[in-house]
Design goal:
about 270 residues; alpha/beta; Rossmann fold; six-stranded parallel sheet; four-stranded parallel sheet; 10 strands; about 45% helix
Length: about 270
């Protein structure tokens, strides 16, 4: 495996940029190839078969880009497709669920953990399974928040509509006394300010994006695959691909990432 090859990152849309952002911060020497499936977002309302098929198409595309590792920066795909894919490919691949569950298990004080995510992730109960393996006595309460993804995709990150939707979704979790809340969709950290304001300062928000980048770094280090060479002046270590609306993606990406991007290339992902 070539340690100078890029890391592949994919999501159903722009949410996975929160993971890409953490990879850029924690591993500044690494190259990244990002794919956002903007034509087919969101994944959370789709069937297991459909999410798995979409994920396989993207994995094949990233393999064509000769990536050295893949990060599934989508909770729904991590919950549904990762178990099948990781047993079938010969490069390291990780998702965002297990790192988030691990962080929540260690940060909770009273053992009451909330999970907000898409319908598919909540119904899979994958966060509950991972958390109970690490902390058997934990009480996990899940809440599907499907409207958060389209709000983020439309750029309504700080908006009265988003504030009202957050209050409606989270009111029942507030009443349960949870002290930790997993933002179980990579779009949700972009709403962190709104979520924290709604839940209150006593509730710890867990960002699986940060934890996933940290785990990715450790995985590459263990395999001697960390890139130890700084990018050269004029080099562009980050490449972005989408399945639709490249200009819209670029505009949102430039509000999320620490470095401005020049553009994204639209591809026909169904060819894969």
């Amino acid at each position: 495996m070539d340690k100078y090859a890029p890391i592949g990152v994919f999501d159903s849309g722009v949410g996975g940029l929160t993971v890409a952002r953490e990879i850029m911060k924690q591993m500044p020497n690494e190259r990244v190839v990002y794919f956002g499936d903007t034509a087919r977002v969101p994944y959370g309302s789709k069937s297991k078969e459909t999410v798995t098929r979409f994920s396989w198409q993207i994995v094949r595309f990233l393999q064509e880009q000769q990536v050295k590792a893949i990060v599934i920066a989508c909770n729904t795909a991590s919950a549904i497709a990762l178990p099948e894919i990781e047993g079938e490919i010969d490069i390291p691949i990780i998702g965002v669920v297990k790192p988030g569950a691990k962080a929540a298990s260690s940060s909770t004080r009273n053992g009451k953990i909330g999970v907000i995510a898409t319908d598919a992730t909540i119904h899979s109960k994958i966060y509950s399974r991972y958390i109970k393996d690490m902390r058997p006595g934990a009480d996990i309460l899940g809440k599907a928040c499907p409207l958060f993804v389209p709000l983020v995709e439309e750029g309504l990150i700080e908006d009265p509509v988003t504030d009202e939707i957050a209050r409606r979704y989270l009111s029942e979790l507030i009443e349960t006394g949870i002290d930790t809340l997993i933002m179980g969709c990579t779009h949700y950290p972009l709403l962190r300010k709104t979520l924290q304001k709604t839940m209150g300062d006593d509730v710890v928000l867990v960002d699986p994006a940060y934890e996933t980048a940290k785990e990715c770094r450790q995985m590459l280090a263990d395999m001697n695959l960390l890139n130890d060479t700084e990018p050269q002046l004029g080099d562009n270590p980050y490449r972005f691909f989408v399945s639709d609306e490249a200009d819209k993606f670029k505009n949102i990406a430039n509000t999320i990432l620490p470095y401005g991007i020049l553009g994204a290339k639209k591809i026909d992902i169904d060819e894969y």
